[in-house]
Amino acid sequence: MHVDIVFFAILWVACAMSLTRKGSMYMRKKFDNDADAPNTESVWTQRFLFLSGIGVLLGVIAGSYTAWVIIDIELGFPVSLTPLFSTFLLDVVLCYLMVKGFDYAHDEPEEDDDEDSFLV
Length: 120
Description:
This protein is an all-alpha fold. The protein folds into 2 domains: about 1-40, no CATH class; about 45-110, no CATH class. Helices cover about 70% and strands about 0% of the residues. It is built from 4 helices and no strands. The longest helix is centred in the middle third of the chain and has 30 residues, at about 45-75. It starts with a helix and ends in a 14-residue tail after the last helix.
């Protein structure tokens, strides 16, 4: 009955786990075949994982809005698309600003204290 709550809880726990250093290394070793190979560049960079998370977030939002419209149509309720489109546009703008903020924060030279950091 509450499968959606369990699904989203598992999704957010996985997302939070992938943001920690040990969690991201686990995900990298799990899905990247070249994670242990020396002198190779992995595709699982911080930016790639962040952009993938943003894509999942926008997909969940778009899917929930689409389901909302379909349910309204099936139940015979009037569909007000203006609030949905304006809210979705606001979500897209906020995600765009998050990506710009991520890029701005990672343009600075990184320090070599990787062992002390908790988050990726």
